[in-house]
Amino acid sequence: MPPGYFESHSARALFQPKPEETVLQCLQRRIDLLSTVIVDWPNGMPGILDGAHEAFDEMGDSSKCRVFNTALYLRNSYTAAVQVMGNGKSWDYAVEQVIDSLSAIGVETYHRSETIKEFHRQFRNYEWKQSSLSVTIAATKS
After folding, report:
1. How far, in Å, CA of 84 to CA of 15, rounded?
2. Are 51 and 62 in contact (CB under 8 A)?
3. What is the enclosing helix (H) or strand (E) of 59?
4. pLDDT digits (tens, 9 = 90+) for 70-96
């Protein structure tokens, strides 16, 4: 990928920032939002569920754990993207690095990069459609 990857049409197509954002601003906003969810668990959930807090409250513990881990994998994947994609590495590479690094510390919720990339697509679409991420994530299997 060329040095200006984050300014490219490919990067905009992959991450689909809001019209007024750059790709890097979009990624940082998503990292910040997901960090809030992780650090302020479970109180950070309203920011990601957009009013669907009641649905979250009704979820079982395993579904809540899956939502937390999904936020962790996505946040780390966006962070890795910022770190490596401007240096010629791919989105696949960034996601694989996150799966490997989390597995190394015992977090093994997801093993396939396609699962994380699907969560990215859902999260990206969620921003545009404001649908309930909790329902989508709880229904998805790794």
Report:
1. 15
2. no
3. none
4. 999 999 999 999 999 999 899 999 999
Evaluate the CA torsion angle 30, 31, 36, 42 in order and state its sign.
positive
**Rounded Cα gap, residues 134 and 130, in angstroms:** 12
Amino acid at 86: G
Q: How far apart are CA 98 and CA 52, in angstroms?
A: 28
**Rounded-to-integer distance, Cα 23 and Cα 80, Å:** 14
Task: Give the Å distances, CA to CA, from 7 to 15, 18, 25, 133.
Answer: 11, 14, 11, 28
Residues in the chain: 142
CA distances from 59 to 53, 63, 116, 135 (A): 10, 6, 21, 9
Half-sphere exposure of 19 (CA within 13 A, CB side): 0
What is the Cα 4 distance to its own chain's centre?
A: 23
pLDDT digits (tens, 9 = 90+) for 14-35: 999 998 999 999 999 999 989 9
Q: What's this model's pTM, rounded to 2 decimal places?
A: 0.82
Instruction: Give the tokens for residue 1.
Output: 């990928």
Other beta carbons within 10 Å of 9 = 7
